[in-house]
């Protein structure tokens, strides 16, 4: 292997899929290898997430990142020069120490993560390996079951429906490529059905159809109809995954479902969701309750945790300590892993390890503000997360990740193991 110490770090401002600025960093190693990564950004964020550093002010709605870019090019570049890029833990520790805050607000999680990821890419490239193999070794061959959005809602679609993500999962598919084939048909069928019903209003932030439904249940009915129209058996071949993103419309045990004109208590939410689980082929529900509703999470997990996957996103913010607490209290049974919720790869991997210890399933996840960066696909395979969520089946920043996974599955050839339904231990179709 060539010299893997960091020679040069350079960041620039690039643009994400919402037309907002974000940070791209190049890491050059002494031996000549280069790595590049771009930080994504969320819209429905948990309050416990690491913080992006944004300039504020008038330009670009306050979202500019010139300070974060400058932090990479000065403070961080100086501090990491000479460090070995193959020692991710030492590099990330240096970044954490340099920032010195609990949530990376000084240097910005957007600055820090771009360096953490770019260094991993550089190290992989120095060893002549794809990133997933560099991270996971020769045994990294588990191809994730995708959760793919069909309709967007909540903060990603002008709150036209309250629920944020209506997704499909294809646990009966034999390969990742086949899961995409099936989803492509469902996505198309859903668009046609909505067009015919006059309920199609464009595409949302993650590429899902932007719906104009009159109730949240109409979205579920349409999704089931789309699965059927595409020629599949709902509940046998293809199931539904929801991201309720309940923190967006609930707090202090009250939930305001604007579309349905209802205000529900925690108990009311649990009743509504368990009713949906009985009536629709639901396999997975993310953030069913608000991030502050720990008791609600515990109660819902008791009520439905053996029937569906219950995912903590805003609730757990990819944080190892929060996950440990949740496991002790038996709240949720699956954790979403978003590297920018923590700010370094090492901290996110730590959460992945805790999940394995506690028996929680894991889903590697992109953000609603994305770019052509495909790191998340490699993390899913390298860390063996078993599931992957990167949005819908349209828009380049989404398709870049699905397409990268197709390449990985192909490169692994006979070694590739598609996770399929095996990752849904608690649910059956
Ligand atoms: C989520 C993500 C992706 P955001 O809530 O899971 O769908 O959205 O990046 O806006 O937090
Ligand atoms: Mg979410």
Oligomer: single chain
Strand order of the largest sheet: 5-6-9-13-14-15-16-17
Q: Just name the CATH architecture of the largest domain.
A: Alpha-Beta Barrel
Shape: globular
Number of domains: 2
Could you tell me the mean pLDDT? 96
Residues in β-strands, percent:
15-25%
CATH superfamily of the largest domain: Enolase-like C-terminal domain
Give the beta-strand count.
18
Structural class of the secondary elements? alpha/beta
Bound molecules: 2-phosphoglyceric acid, magnesium ion
Number of helices: 13
Name the poorly predicted regions: none
Cα Rg: 21 Å
CATH class of the largest domain: Alpha Beta
Q: What characterizes the major β-sheet?
A: 8 strands, mixed, barrel
Indicate the CATH topology of the largest domain.
TIM Barrel
> Helicity, in percent?
25-40%
Q: What is the rounded distance between the termini? A: 47 Å
Task: Report on the architecture of this protein.
- This protein folds into 2 domains: 6-128, Enolase-like, N-terminal domain (Enolase-like, domain 1, 2-Layer Sandwich), CATH 3.30.390; 142-423, Enolase-like C-terminal domain (TIM Barrel, Alpha-Beta Barrel).
- The chain has helices at 66-80, 88-99, 109-126, 131-136, 176-197, 216-229, 266-279, 294-304, 320-329, 339-342, 345-358, 375-382, 396-412, and strands at residues 6-15, 21-29, 34-38, 142-143, 145-152, 165-169, 200-203, 209-211, 239-243, 250-251, 254-257, 262-265, 282-286, 309-312, 334-337, 361-365, 386-392, 417-418.
- An 8-stranded mixed barrel has the order 5-6-9-13-14-15-16-17, surrounded by 6 helices.
- Helix 2 (88-99) packs antiparallel against helix 3.
- Helices cover 38% and strands 21% of the residues.
- It has 13 helices and 18 strands.
- The chain is of the alpha/beta class and 429 residues long.
- A hairpin with a 2-residue loop joins strand 10 (250-251) and strand 11.
- Bound molecules: 2-phosphoglyceric acid and magnesium ion.
- Magnesium ion binds next to loops.
- 2-phosphoglyceric acid is lined by residues 42-45, 164-165, 206, 243, 245, 313, 365, 367-368.
């Amino acid at each position: 292997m060539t010299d893997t110490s960091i020679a040069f770090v350079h960041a620039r401002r690039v643009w994400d899929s919402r037309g907002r600025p974000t940070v791209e960093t190049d890491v050059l190693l002494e031996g000549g290898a280069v790595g590049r990564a771009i930080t994504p950004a969320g819209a429905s964020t948990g309050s416990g997430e690491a913080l992006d550093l944004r300039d504020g002010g008038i330009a670009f709605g306050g979202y500019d990142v010139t300070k974060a870019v400058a932090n990479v090019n000065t403070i961080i570049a100086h501090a990491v020069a000479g460090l070995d890029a193959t020692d991710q833990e030492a590099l990330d520790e240096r970044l954490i120490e340099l920032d010195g805050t609990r949530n990376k607000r000084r240097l910005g999680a957007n600055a820090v993560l771009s360096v953490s990821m770019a260094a991993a890419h550089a190290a992989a490239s120095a060893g002549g390996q794809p990133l997933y193999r560099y991270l996971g070794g020769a045994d990294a061959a588990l191809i994730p079951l995708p959760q793919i959005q069909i309709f967007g809602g909540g903060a990603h679609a002008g709150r036209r429906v309250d629920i944020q993500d209506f997704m499909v999962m294809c646990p009966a598919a034999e390969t990742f490529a086949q899961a995409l084939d099936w989803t492509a048909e469902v996505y198309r069928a859903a668009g046609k059905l909505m067009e015919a019903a006059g309920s199609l209003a464009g595409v949302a932030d993650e590429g899902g159809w932007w719906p104009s439904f009159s109730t949240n249940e109409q979205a579920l009915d349409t999704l089931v109809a789309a699965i059927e129209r595409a020629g599949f058996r709902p509940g046998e071949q293809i199931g539904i995954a929801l991201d309720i993103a309940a923190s967006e419309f609930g707090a202090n045990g009250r939930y305001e479902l604007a579309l349905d004109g209802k205000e529900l208590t925690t108990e009311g939410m649990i009743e509504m969701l368990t009713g949906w689980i009985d009536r629709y082929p639901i396999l997975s529900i993310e953030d069913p309750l608000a991030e502050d509703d720990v008791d609600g999470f515990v109660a819902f997990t008791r009520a439905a945790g053996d029937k569906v996957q219950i995912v903590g996103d805003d609730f757990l913010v990819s944080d190892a300590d929060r996950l440990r607490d949740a496991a002790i209290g038996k709240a949720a049974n699956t954790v979403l892993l978003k590297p920018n919720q923590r700010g370094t790869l090492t901290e996110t991997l730590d959460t992945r390890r805790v999940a394995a210890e506690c028996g929680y399933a894991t889903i590697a996840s992109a953000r609603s503000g994305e770019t052509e960066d495909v790191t998340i696909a490699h993390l899913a395979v390298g860390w063996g997360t078993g599931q992957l969520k990167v949005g819908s089946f349209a828009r380049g920043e989404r398709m870049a990740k699905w397409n990268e996974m197709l390449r990985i599955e192909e490169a692994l050839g006979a070694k590739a193991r598609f996770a399929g339904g095996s990752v849904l231990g608690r649910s059956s179709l």
